[in-house]
Amino acid sequence: MNKIELKNLLFLARLQVKEEDQDKTIEKLQNTFEMIDQMNDLDLDKFEPLNNPLELTNVSRSDEEKNRNKKEEFLKKSPKSDEDYFVVPKIVE
Amino acid sequence: MNFQETRNNFRKKQVSAKELTEESLKKAKEKSELNAFISHFEEYALERASNIDANFDEFKDKPLGGIPIAHKDIFCTDGKKTTCASKMLENFIPPYESTVTKNCNDAGSIMIGKTNMDEFAMGSSNETSFFGPVKNPWGQSLVPGGSSGGSAACVAADITTISTGTDTGGSIRQPAALCGITGLKPTYGLVSRWGMIAFCSSMDQAGPLARDAFACSALLNAMASYDEKDSTCSKRESIDYEKGLNKDFGKLKIGILKGIENLGISEEVLNAYESSKKILEQLGHSFVELDFTELSSGICSYYVIAPAECSSNLSRFDGVKYGHRSEAKNISELYLKTRAEGFGDEVQKRILIGSYVLSAGFYDAYYRKAQKVRRMIKSKFDEFFKDVDLVFLPTTLDQAFEMNRESTDPNRMYKEDLLTIPANLAGLPAMSLPNGFSKNLPIGAQFVGNYFSEELLLNTAHKMQEVTDWHKMTP
Amino acid sequence: MAQNDTLVNGWQPVIGLEIHVQLQTNTKLFSPAKNQFGEEANTLVDLIDMGLPGVLPVLNDGAVKQGIAFGLATNAEIAKTMVFDRKNYFYPDLPKGYQITQLHYPIVKNGVVDVEGKQVRIHQAHLEEDAGKSMHDVYDSESVVDLNRSGVPLLEIVSEPDIRSAEEAVKYLKKIHQIITYLDISDGDMSQGSMRCDANVSIMRPDDKEFGIRAEIKNINSFRFVEKAINFEIKRQIKVLESGEKVEQETRLYDSVKDETRSMRTKEFANDYRYFPCPDLVPHEISEDLVKKVKDNLSELPEEKQKRLMETHNLNEYDAGVLCADKSTADFFEEVAKEADAELAAKWIIGDLNALLNKNDISLKESKVNAVNFSKLIQNISNNTISGKIAKDVLDEVWQSGEDVAKIIEGQGMQQISDEGELEKIIDKILAENTSQVEAYKSGKDKLFGFFVGQVMKATQGKANPGLANKLLKNKLG
C-alpha cells in the first residue's frame, strides 16, 4: 500500500492520520493483510459465501405504525440543535 | 459467593435484595482498582432493590429475583450512560432500553453498574478502553481478557454473581478462561441484538458470565427471548435451561481435534485440557478424533469480516445526532476531527482494514473469499456434528498475560482468538469453564455444540462442575 | 440503436432515466414511523431512523407488496429472492452513514413500458430507504437536518438507455407516473419530491457501435425541466465533442433559472460505496402465492379504466384515452360524470379545462377546480341555465377563485335568457335599429345572419340562449 491508497482509504473512512505517522499506519495495516492473505492458500471453489450463520429468510413486519418519536429528547442529545433541527456546519454542495 | 445459595437465601427471605445490593456496591468500591466498571448506579440500584423487596411475591420465583447484576457497557440502558468504552460515547445516554437488559430487569435482577470493556468490543485484553484497562483479579499486572474484561473481572472478584457480556470472536469465553469463571456464547440468533451496540452484526451475540453453569443457565433463561425487533433473531420455543441441568443426556460422543499440540498452546493449558478429558471419560463420555486442519484459517476470515462490518456499523458516529463532536469549520472537518478524536487506535485500524476489504477491486479477493472460508468452517462443523455431540478444546493459547505485552509478532493479539473464532464464524454455541490452575492462574476449556444446543452445553458443564472445584476458586 | 427522427445535428442522443418514487405505505421501509409528507420537522423520526447505536431494521411487507405491484404492471420479473445491501457514504442527512438498498438482487427486473408504441425497457426497480433533508438557508454559516424523510420507502426505477430524445424521456416519465398513480403506490408529485428524476445522457454517432460517455443530471423537479435539462445537455455534449474534447463522466446539476447543467464540484477522491449485503437483514423470498395475492388486488390499470369508461359512459376511444392518461383526471371525470352528462363533461375536461392546466403549468390537484363544482358547471350547461359561451367565463372565474358555480352564475347574473318573450322583444328592437342590414339579408346576403346573432349577443351580454335566439331570428328574418 502506498500513501495515496492510504489517503483514499482515510477519506472513505473519514479518518485522519498525521503525515508523519502515515508510514507507520501503512505498516500496521500491511501486517494484518499479511496474516489475512494466508486465506489464499485454500481451495475454496466449492464453497458459496456465507453471510449469516442461520441462513434465515423472510423476516418482516406488517405496515402498522408505532410512535416512538421523542423529538425534544432526540434533538437535545445532539451536540448542536435548535428547537426543530439538528445543526451542523454549512454544507456546500 | 454462590449464585444458587444466594438466590435460595433471597427466596427464603434470609437475605433481602437490599442487603445483597449493598454488599455488591461495597465490594465494587473495595475492588475499584480493578477498574472493572465504567459507571456505578448506586442510587438506582438501592431504589430498585427496595422495590423488589417491597414486591417480594412478584419477584421471588423469577430466575434472577433479587440478584445484583453488572451489564457490559455495550447494552443501551434507557436514561443511563452507555459508552461502549469509547470517547465517542463518553456522555451518551440512550433514549431506549436493550432487550437483554430489559429481560434481566423483568427477571428481577438489580443492575449495579456498567462494566468496562475493550472499545466497541474490539480487543482481547481490555486494554483498548478509553476509560483505562481492566485488571485481572488474579494479578493486577495481568489482563483479564477481552472484550468483556470488566464483566469477567466483576464476577471473578465476587462483586456480583452474574454479569452479561458479548462474544464476537471469543469476547465472553476468553476473559472467562483468563479469570477462572464460566461464560457462554449462545447460538447466533438466540439472544436479541436490539439495543446492543453493533460491532460485527453477523457474529455479535450476548451471553452470560458467572462462576458456574447453574448461574449461567438462570441468566440465559432471562436473557434469551424471541424479539421481532431483531430480524436475525431466531423464533424458537423457549427452553428452561435451569431445568435442563437435571436432564440425563446419557453418554456423549465428544470430538477432540487432531494435532492440538501443534497449535502453539502452552503446556499448562494442554495439561489442564488432558486432565479434563479424563474427567469426561469418568463421566461416561467417549472421544472421537476430528480433523480440523483449516482451523487457523478462521482468524483470516474473521479479521476480514469483523472489520468490514464494523467499518460500516461505526459510520453512524459522525458527530451529527449524538455522541462526541469536535469543533469544526465545515462538514468535512466535522467528520475527520470527530472520528479521529472519538475513536481509539485499534478501532481506527479496524475501520481502515474494513473499508479496504470492502472497496471496489478488493471485495472479491478479501470479503467474498472470507465469506467462503466462513462457509467452509461451518460445513466442517456440520460434518463433525454428524459424528459427535460436542467438540471439546482449550479456550485460549495461554493463561492471563502481562499488560502492554511486547511481541515480535504484530498479529499476536489477533491470534489469541484462534480457538474461539470458529464458533463465531459458524454461529454455533460455545461455553468456557475453568478446568485447571497453574502458576496461581486459572485455565479454561470450552465446549462447542450444534445449533441451539445450549441445554446440552450447560448440562455437560454442570455435571463436570459437580465433580470438580475449579469454578469455586477465588483470587 | 439510431433513431433517425431523433438525431440532433447528426448526433444520436442516448438517454436513460433513474426515477425515485416514494411509496405510499403507512410506515417507513425499515421503521414503524409514519410515512407522511409535510409534517413538523423531526416528528416522524423513529429510534431506527435516528441511526442510534444498537437499533436494527425490520422490513415493511407493505413496501414489498407495492414493489411487486409495479413489477406486475410492467411485465417484469419478480425476484424469487431479494437481498438488501448497504451503500456506504457520509452525509449529514444519512444517519447511519449508509443507505440500505438493493444492488444485486432487486425486487423487480427486466420490465417494459409502452411509450406511444415504443418499448422502453426497465433494467430493474429496487427498494431502498430515502435520506433525510438538509437545508442551508435557515442559518448563515450552518445547515440544518430534518430526519422526517429518513427511512421513507423508495422504489428506484432504472431504465435501459433506450430513450432517444428529451421528448421521449418526458413521455416515458409520464407513463411511469401514470402507472404508479394508477397502482396507488405513489402520488408521483414531482414538486413535493415523491417522484424524482435523474437523467443519464450521452451522445454518439449513428454508426458507432458503443455508447458515448454519459453524464448524470440531477435536481430536475418537473416534467418541463426534464425536457429542458436533457435538451441543454445534448447540445452541451455536442459542443464538447465537436470541439475535439471529451465528455466527462460526471454528475451535473440542472439549474432551472439559467436553464443549464453545471458540473458538481468534483471531489479529490472518488466515492467508493463498498456495497455488501446488510447483515442486519435476511434474504426475502417472494412466493408465487404472494405475487398472485398482489395481482388479485391490483388497482385498475389505465387500459382497463379506459375500456370501462368507453363502455359505461359511451365515450370514444380517443376521448377515453386522453381522460385516462392521468389518473387524477380520470378520477375527476368519473366524479363529475356521476351527476353530469358524461360526453359533455369529457369535452369540457379535454378542451377548456386541460387548456387552462397547460397554460398555467399546474396540475388538477393544485388548481382551484374541484369535481363537484365542475360537475355543477356541466349540469348548468346541459339544463340550459347558461350557454356554452358563458360557461367559459364561469370556468375562468372558478379557476381564479374556486368559487361555487351556482354563486358565480347568480352573483353575476349570467343565467341564460331563454324566455321567448324577452328575447323577441330584444330581437325586434335590433331588427328595427338595423333596417339596412335586414334589407341586405333579405335580398340574399346570408352571411349577415351572423351579424344579427352578434347583435343579440351584444344586447344580452352574451346571455341569450343561442339556440333560441337563432330560431327566433330565423322566424323573424324569414
Task: Give a description of the structure.
- The complex is a heterotrimer of chains A (93), B (475) and C (478).
- Helix content of chain A is 35%, strand content 6%.
- With 93 residues, chain A is mostly helical.
- The longest helix of chain A has 15 residues, at 22-36.
- Chain B has helices at residues 3-11, 17-30, 42-54, 56-59, 99-106, 149-156, 173-179, 213-223, 241-244, 267-282, 297-313, 331-342, 345-358, 363-387, 412-415, 421-426, 454-466; strands at 37-40, 68-72, 110-115, 162-166, 182-185, 206-210, 253-257, 286-290, 390-394, 430-438, 441-449.
- Chain C is α+β, with helices and mostly antiparallel strands and 478 residues long.
- Chain C has helices spanning 61-73, 166-182, 223-242, 288-296, 302-313, 317-324, 327-339, 342-360, 371-382, 388-401, 405-411, 420-433, 435-442, 448-459, 466-477, and strands spanning 12-22, 59-60, 77-78, 81-82, 85-88, 98-101, 108-115, 118-129, 133-135, 142-146, 153-159, 195-204, 215-220, 251-255, 260-263, 276-277, 284-285.
- The mean pLDDT of chain C is 93.
- Chains A and B meet through helix 1, helix 2, helix 3 and strand 2 of A and helix 11, helix 12, helix 13 and helix 14 of B.
Label this structure with key terms.
heterotrimer; A: 93 residues; mainly alpha; 35% helix; flat; B: 475 residues; alpha/beta; 11-stranded mixed beta sheet; 17 helices; 11 strands; 39% helix
Secondary structure: elements and pairs:
The complex is a heterotrimer of chains A (about 90), B (about 475) and C (about 475).
Chain A lengths: L2 H11 L8 H15 L23 E2 L9 H7 L8 E4 L4
Chain B lengths: L2 H9 L5 H14 L6 E4 L1 H13 L1 H4 L8 E5 L26 H8 L3 E6 L33 H8 L5 E5 L6 H7 L2 E4 L20 E5 L2 H11 L17 H4 L8 E5 L9 H16 L3 E5 L6 H17 L17 H12 L2 H14 L4 H25 L2 E5 L17 H4 L5 H6 L3 E9 L2 E9 L4 H13 L9
Parallel strand pairs in B: 2-3, 2-4, 7-8, 7-9
Antiparallel strand pairs in B: 1-3, 4-6, 5-6, 5-10, 9-11, 10-11
Chain C lengths: L11 E11 L36 E2 H13 L3 E2 L2 E2 L2 E4 L9 E4 L6 E8 L2 E12 L3 E3 L6 E5 L6 E7 L6 H17 L12 E10 L10 E6 L2 H20 L8 E5 L4 E4 L12 E2 L6 E2 L2 H9 L5 H12 L3 H8 L2 H13 L2 H19 L10 H12 L5 H14 L3 H7 L8 H14 L1 H8 L5 H12 L6 H12 L1
- The termini of chain A sit apart by 31 Å
Please state the overall shape of chain A, judged from the principal axes of the Cα atoms.
flat
Percent range for β-strand residues of chain C: 15-25%
Helix-strand category of chain C? alpha+beta
Distance between the termini of chain C: 68 Å
Count every beta strand of chain A, where a strand is a DSSP E run of 2 or more residues: 2
Radius of gyration of chain A: 23 Å
Order of helices and strands of chain A: HHEHE
Instruction: Tell me about the largest β-sheet of chain C.
Output: 9 strands, mixed
